[in-house]
Amino acid sequence: MVINRDADTEPRLNHPNTTVYCQDTNLLLKHAIDHHERRKPPFLLSNDGKTWCEKMPDKDGVDFIYGGTFFLY
Question: What is the pLDDT of residues 48-68, one digit of tens each?
Fold first, then answer.
């Protein structure tokens, strides 16, 4: 798997108060639902294999989920 290291940096430059997760959107959505339903899901490891994703926000804390690349080379 090739990970674009800039993919999680660019949105932060344009929107500095944004939390960016570099992880599969299906896993993030399942994690958010489990968290909302108080199932206490384990923390997710980022796709870089080194960084842990931040805790998912509470209900109404997710404004936008984007799946895909920001850059086309």
Answer: 888 888 887 777 777 777 776
Q: Are 70 and 8 in contact (CB under 8 A)?
A: no
Structural domain span for residue 39: 12-56
Q: What are the b/e assignments for 33-66, b being 16+ CB within 10 Å?
A: eebeeeeeeeebebbeeeeebeebeeeeeeeeee
Encode pLDDT of 1-12 as tens digits: 444 555 556 666
Please give the tally of structural domains in the chain: 1
Of 67, 60, 53, 62, which Cα lies nearest the Cα of 25?
A: 67
Residue 8: how many other CB atoms lie within 10 Å: 19
